[in-house]
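Example for tutorial group B:
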């Protein structure tokens, strides 16, 4: 079975790490393409291609002001991705809690003084 095109849905679009970086950068505020290029150190054509994919699946929106385009995240479109990944948060939180408990238990047992038998 072939993999779906990255432009087919939000999940495939965010599978690309650079697109996730762009979404992270856009999360706090609307930004022009040039700011994304500088902040992420990517070539402008590459950023434009990634933005096109994100725009096509609805994860970002664009506002034009003269010749400049400003991009922002579309929180409603990101919501299904967030809800799906949140299902795994409980699992990882439990795993990390168990690891922490084991480490603390090991640390406590390492600190216990060895007792010598008196003759």
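The residue assignment follows.
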């Amino acid at each position: 079975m072939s993999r779906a095109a990255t432009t087919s849905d939000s999940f495939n679009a965010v599978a690309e790490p650079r697109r996730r970086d762009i979404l992270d950068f856009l999360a706090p505020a609307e930004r022009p393409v040039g700011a994304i290029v500088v902040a992420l150190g990517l070539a402008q054509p590459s950023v434009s291609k990634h933005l096109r994919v994100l725009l096509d699946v609805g994860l970002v929106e664009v506002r034009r002001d003269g010749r400049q385009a400003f991009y922002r995240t579309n929180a409603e479109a990101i919501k299904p991705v967030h809800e799906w990944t949140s299902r795994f948060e409980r699992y990882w939180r439990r795993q990390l809690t168990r690891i922490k408990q084991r480490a603390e238990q090991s640390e406590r047992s390492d600190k216990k003084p060895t007792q010598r038998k008196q003759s």
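The two ends are 74 Å apart (CA to CA). Compare this with the pattern of hydrophobic and polar residues in the output above.
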